[in-house]
Structure formats: structure tokens, C-alpha cells
Amino acid sequence: MERILFVADAQLDGSLPKIAREVLASAVKLSGELDGATLTVGLIGGDVQAAADSIAGCGAAAFLGAAGDDFAVSRYSSDAAAAEAMVRKSEATLVVAPGTARLARALPGVAQRVGGRIDSHIAGFQVDAGTLRVERWFYRQRMVAVMSRSQRPWLLLIDSGVFDALDGAEGSATVEAVPVEVPRARTQVVGEEAASAEAQTIRPDADVLFVAGAGWTKKQADGQAHVPEAEKLILGFLKQTGSSLGSSKSLVDQSGEGQAVLSFMSHVNQVGQTGSTPRHPKGLATCCHGEEPHVVGWRFIKERRAVNIDPGCGWAQGKADVLYVADAFEVMSKVNDLLGGG
Amino acid sequence: MSFHIVVCGSLVPDPLQTLEPVQGPTGPGLKNEMMLPSVLDPWAAHALYEAAHLAANTPDCRVWLVSLGPKARLQQLMMNIAQKVPFELVAIDGPASGFADAYEVAAALTAAIESIDGLDRSRMLLFGGRASASRDAGVTMQMVGERLGITDQFLAVDKLKVEDGGALRILERIEGGRYLASICEGPPAVVAWSTGGLPEPPNNPQVGMQNMRTIMPALQKAQPVALEAEGVVYANVEVPQQRRETRIVKDVPVEEVARDIVEWLRSG
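^ Those are the sequences you sent over. The predicted structure of the assembly is below.
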């Protein structure tokens, strides 16, 4: 019989991020599919009551909390101590958690402490004859495997966008405070910073991923680069659509090769082999070229379209639903006009 | 303040290679895996460059590269990276497969680090990539850190600055394209890097000559390890059929293209 612990970190305003409600939905589903399984919720944060109340009706048998100043910020030593205490208190055999930056950093160490195992980037579950199998990708989204483990506790970090979020479970939850032995903090969190001072361009919950390729900063038909115009067009599109921005090539690579770089582009925009593989319902790629290492960046985009002057573009052929063979500067200018009612 | 920087990094198949899974006697692997050209794992490579940069700008530092992989392939890899930056190699002879279990990899790396002569663990910065390009788990560095008793850990780091007094100011990537800024009192600490801020260094033959003095002996005395992924059962491994029927829209007025895109953006 599996004892499932769902662990999440509450945000500063006391709410749970969307990914946490998605993963909680998966934990609820799992507890129903595994015979005799029980579900416990564990919450970490400055104040976890509001988060617990927001999911009070999820069917969990108990709510555990690690709250207070020590847990208000994301820090490995305190987060790992809190999660470890919850795993031990609940005697969990399965730990299911959202793959947030905070928990992706802390839970691997917890697995080590409790003698368990951990798998990350889980993209699906299967329960077959009482055996839990998980789906995850290998070699940076180039092959997919279905696997199971005999060791317990088994900790699972789930990717965003895999499950539908749990809604409508508000109520009043009784949260049991878990005693946590917090080590002396040698690390102080001093705040958050934007990766780019120019504009906020990463929006994980956006409907559209707009991928800007290196072609935007290269010489155009008139023999000149038009970087300021490119910036204006891209930012205009992002502003009107609320899209998230991805880059097909490492900013480090571009600047290292002496190329111009879009001023609002930062490392964190990069998608692909050494970047992220975000999940969005739609993706529009412009001026992108390249093969597999870059193209894996939109592996998890459901509907894909691309604008490129090269009809043989490796980024789009066989990977996009539609390839518009056209000048992205001209197309995006018109798109922005239409979006603005022009 | 000086540092003893241990970088964990191994080889992965060149990303331009076509990868095909095959079932071997001990579990899944890659077709012709031993023949595939390799590169240093990209995020670990950034960690190595950052380590070398930090060491070059801080007195009395040493840099070790702890690398787990088949000895013959490690030797080939070293031919490519030995001229990049100065380091001392600690080689472990074992599989570099993405299907290896991170828990077992962490145990092998920890044992190798504990065996390093002259390593002062009170001054240690444990560097590595935020995840490998093979397993892409993002969990191994934390487990190595735990095994070594290091509880100041940072994941997806893009910047590390040594402050006056020796404290470390670190920027980690978090959600929403933002950084979490932290100040750690100093080593020991685990720093798992994203891309950092340094380009790939150019080849330097003198650095290569210097490195080769330790690389060949390290390869010769590499300890074999068996990674058996105990308790793991792979029910299926496949390359999904991702090819889409791409509709090419060509020789169409730009206004029409723009209208089509906007209609699509506005549709359900």
C-alpha cells in the first residue's frame, strides 16, 4: 500500500502556483488508482494556511506544514530540512512534487537523506496491475521512456503542463505543524532580480511561445542589420499578445561570436539543448534555423508555426504545422498592425 | 580566500548525432554508443570554464575535473578539452549512459572526490552542470553534496561573485525569467551551473601540454565502477515519431500571411 505525500511550496502571498495545483491533481488521481493508497499534503512557506485552505477539499487525509520565517524564502538547507521532516512524519513511500526551482533544488538531497530515489521531469503516470510507471524523457527530449522502481521512498518531480490543475477544492484545512530541525543558515536570500532589465519576457503560463532566432540580428536584404527595428517589432508583439519569449541560440554563443544581441534577451530566454523546453499551447518561431539541438526547444509546443525566408529550414520542416516562407520583419509588422486594430 | 574547485562533468553524445535506443543485456542504451562522437556535457562545460576563470582570478586555487565515463571515450574527450582551461583530471571508468541511475552516479562521484589527494574540503566549491544532456535529471549534484555533508547548495546558477571578505554572491535561475540572489558565507558549497557568463575558451596548446601531464596518469589509474540501475525497470524506450506534415505557405502576399497568423493566434 502506497502512502503518497504531495509536497509544494506556497508563494509569498500564500497562494499555490498553477503547477502545484496541476501536480496535486495528479497525486489525487494516483491515490485513486493505487489500491489502498493514502494522500497527505505537505506545504512549505512563510504562511501555509491560505494555501492549505485553497485545496482543503482535495481528499487528503492530513495536511502538514512547515511555516515561519525560516521557510518564507527559497533556501536549500531549510527547504530540505522541512521536506525531510514531512517525508519522515508521513512515512511516505511516494513523494509527488511540482518541479519548481525551489523543490527541484531541495528534493534530490532529501531523497539522499531518507535513503530513497528520485526521478525528475516526469511527464506522465501509468498504473498497471498495481504497479506505478512513470514517463520521462532522456537525452534532452530526444527519446521517451516508461519506467518503474522498486525502491521507496520514490520521489517524483513533475513538469508543468502535464496535468490539468485542480480547481474548486477550497475549504478550511487543519494544518499540523511539523517540527523541523533547521540548521544554522549560512546562506541569506537577499532578493530577486530580473534577468533582463529591459523587459519582462518570460511568461510560463502564456498561451503562445514566440521564438526569436538569430536571424533577427543578422544582415538583411539591404546588407544592413536592423536590430532596433527587430526589438521594436518583437516587443510590440509580446506586449499585444502576452506571449513568452524564447531564443533559439545561446546568448553567450551570439555575443561570443561578435553578433549583435537583442537588448532584452537574456540567458533564461534560451530554449533547446542547453536551454529550456517550455510547454505552451502555441508556438510561433521567427528567423530560426538549426537542427536538433535547437529544435528540441519546442518539443512540447502543441501547435507550431514558423516564419522563415528559407523553405528548407530545418527548424520548421517536419517540425512545424505551417511554415510561412516570408520576411519576418514585414510579416510581424503587419501582424502587430492587425493585433492593434490597424 | 582561495578555493579548491571540484567540477563534476562527463561526456555526452555530440548533439548533432542521431540517437537510437537499443535494449542491452543490462538495460537500455544507445545504438553504437561506444562509436558516437562525444562532447563535454554542455552545462558541465560551462561549470568548468567558470571554475577556471575563478581560479585564474583568485590566488592559490586548484581545479579538478571528476569525470565518469568509459575510459577510452574519456581519453578521446580529453583530446578535445585539454587545451581549453587548466585542470587536474580524476577519471572514473564506467558508463556515461543517460539511463544510469543518478543515485549510483552520485555514489561513484563522491567516492572519487573523497579520494582526491590534497583536497581541502573546507575550501571546496563543488561545481557541475544543473543537469546532464543525457539523463537531464538535475539531481546528481545535490546528492553528491549531501553525501559530502554540504548543505549550502545552488541550482541553475548563472553568476557567482566573491565579495570582499570571501562571501559568495550567487544568482540562480527561478521561474518567470528571474534570478534568486543569495549570499553564502563561503565554501563549502554546491554550485550547479546553467550557462554562466563565459564563452567557450579558445584552444591553448600550452594549457594542453600542462594538462596532459596529469590526464594520462589519471586515465591509467581510473577505477572501474559498475552502475546497474538497481531496482529500475524500463518498460519501454523509444524515439517518438515527431514528424509533422508541414504546410508550406509560399509566394503569398505578406498581408495574407499576417492575417492567417492573427486568426490562428485568436482561435481557441
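Chain A has a mean pLDDT of 91. Chain A has two domains: 3-177, 208-339.

Shout if you want it in another format.
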